[in-house]
Amino acid sequence: MAQAVRWTHPLSYLNSDGRRHPKENSLATATLALGVVSVVCAWWPGLHVPGTWVGIVGVLTGAWGQYISATTGERFVTIIGLGAAAVGFYINMMHGGFLT
């Protein structure tokens, strides 16, 4: 029988199995934040060095978060952040890379 899903907390989407996953949730949100920072740094070519480093850290964090994720919500947030970090990383590499 289908039942209505009730979310009482913003992180309840990440904990769809009813259990807490603090490490997995932290990695998912950190990956999303690193991806956003990397993409924002890609808008300004002068910020390519920190944007590149943040992007590569976001990709590595996202890969580890994807490896240990427990729910579909965590995987969704991790993949969005991982994609953003990768795009930001590549655009920042185009602007000059790690040490220019």
TrEMBL record:
The chain crosses the membrane at residues 27-45, 51-69, 76-93. The keyword Transmembrane applies. It comes from the Bacteria. Keywords: Membrane, Transmembrane, Transmembrane helix. This is Integral membrane protein.
